[in-house]
Amino acid sequence: MSVCEFESLEKSLEAHLPEAELTEVKRILFGQGAGKLDLPSGAVEAACERNFELKGYRFDAVQEQLRPPRRTRVGLIQHHIVLPTDAPVLEQINAMHSRIGEIIEVAAMCGVNIICFQETWTMPFAFCTREKDPWTQFAESAEDGNTTRFCQELAKKHNMVIISPILERDELHSTLWNTAVVISNSGNVLGKSRKNHIPRIGDFNESTYYMEGNTGHTVFQTQFGRIAVNICYGRHHPLNWFMYSLNGAEIIFNPSATVGALSEPMWPIEARNAAIANHCFTCAINRVGTGLRDCASFSFPQEHFKNEFTSGDGKKAHHDFGHFYGSSYVAAPDGSRTPGLSRTRDGLLVAEMDLNLNRQLSDKWSFKMTGRYAEYAEELANAVRHDFKPHVVKE
Amino acid sequence: MSVCEFESLEKSLEAHLPEAELTEVKRILFGQGAGKLDLPSGAVEAACERNFELKGYRFDAVQEQLRPPRRTRVGLIQHHIVLPTDAPVLEQINAMHSRIGEIIEVAAMCGVNIICFQETWTMPFAFCTREKDPWTQFAESAEDGNTTRFCQELAKKHNMVIISPILERDELHSTLWNTAVVISNSGNVLGKSRKNHIPRIGDFNESTYYMEGNTGHTVFQTQFGRIAVNICYGRHHPLNWFMYSLNGAEIIFNPSATVGALSEPMWPIEARNAAIANHCFTCAINRVGTGLRDCASFSFPQEHFKNEFTSGDGKKAHHDFGHFYGSSYVAAPDGSRTPGLSRTRDGLLVAEMDLNLNRQLSDKWSFKMTGRYAEYAEELANAVRHDFKPHVVKE
Hints:
homodimer, C-N_Hydrolase_sf (chains A, B)
């Protein structure tokens, strides 16, 4: 057992496989769609100085006769918390703002048009503790909270659409939500998308804090493409991705917070399957931190909680949720994907995509045309009835 | 570029990665659920003599108090055609019967309870030619065709449930179907499951031969578990897997015929995503053959067709569809999977699975409970209307 967290699948393959085999392995694992995107040297230097990984990829499409290319650059940011979890709440939030500010500056240098942060990015992912205090104090108004105002400034300054997933305080209904605020590059709040599916995984029950969202499957028309946000646990629900796609999403973001022991083998599968099945791009973002011995990131505080808590699994009380393994990536409708960001470091992934690829793949593979959705609508309406009789044949 | 088809991702990783890294890479790629299953030495010898790969894996579940373990062994067979595609039809069918007969004998030695063959296993996958003659002559009655009678004998002899995907001739309705015949271990035909989604991929349009199936999402209750069959292109449709699962399927088989250039990066994703999303086991089976230079299998005839045909892609007329890359595998509800069989050799994959794992995973991850299906039934009914208005927010 290494004393460090394993840094990345991709690095391991590149370090050890002979070139001819590496080419085949990468083709099978990642497809052939993602090429390297050259990024400005100033951005590369700044990322190095500011201690985060910077990677660029591009997905091209065939040149059409009647539509010009529709190239959009998206940015995915994964990061540690910045201050310890017992620092004053406002200081923690402000420190996270500063960190994002310095990363997004590099995103701007890379020409990013739409950027998405990780789930509840302004706070530690403290829902495993089941404590209300101080964690609900991180909740803010989606429309005019500090964090939204901070993002509005950045959006205007960098001419960038920003997806800012926060813990939302909804004063109007005296309730909390897990919400992505979508801010236009004009600086206006375009709207919000609430988490549709709330985890009950073992004893990890986020409905202690917020319930299933009521914003449906809203799609946001931006200057850079039609986007939607499927927050975290919603990636396990193929119908959730599907309905965003039926509403016209060309890129679906999946800001997440998930740990290794629980979900890591599922991580490369679900968002990518959604890109294939729905002829769209998907962007999966996971935070980093709290490795057993997280060497590469020892300079960051970890998501360690002062009060111990149990997890309903027979194990002793403990102080953290597990290792958030990063590995953020972009998947394309042709089944290809980018390599993942590091499992341990803060990072910015820049992906340029020609959105024309979606319709080209749809015209080729025809999943929507062959989907028989009217029949499924009937079958599903029947299946949810309490007296549903499954169609089972016996001898 | 090698003169041979690349044999397997797994072999390449095992040959080159240092042990500690290999462990992590395998954990991330395959999860940790599949252990090695010891197979009888007689079976291993027979597989070697008969020139096919034999692999065994097991998926365990936690021992429960109120249910005994429900261990089932499934077998997946992938194979080349046996005679050239211009041999007399009946000789081709009979040769394929003999080949399957000798592989299934080994499956019986391994204690397999349920076995599934590849899509339209009695014939070359000739639908790319768009010729009716002689390919429609391979069609047989699902109820009392030669192949079904052959399978009934095997089922009784080996006490095995057999899933036999064939080209079906439905005399009653003067039509053809792409159909899996499910034969009970008693030897009785339990029923049939027709391909629900028919590919229109580029110019590859199987509806030249058969249309969308009308058997819905039938599940078969066998002595060894509740099973369903999602044929080939249906794996791209998450709703198809989902509806089999809602009808109670514990294992969903996906007999396929698909080639590298088209689908290989999607192959490890889709069936596995279905196992995760639906808390069930899935078994993906693909044929082998027709590699550019298919060294490992040069002793088998390839799926080479006498008359050249074009593929609507601007390329020159050619004589084969591409490389069927095998790589059959089993995926489990915990996100883990077996390694794939070879990309080039005939093979039998034996997987023992404790079906109790499905409910255990469902109780842990709760995707069905958190699925909000009643709301999706409404949304979908609305979305299929010709005057559907997508929910798009603009500035």
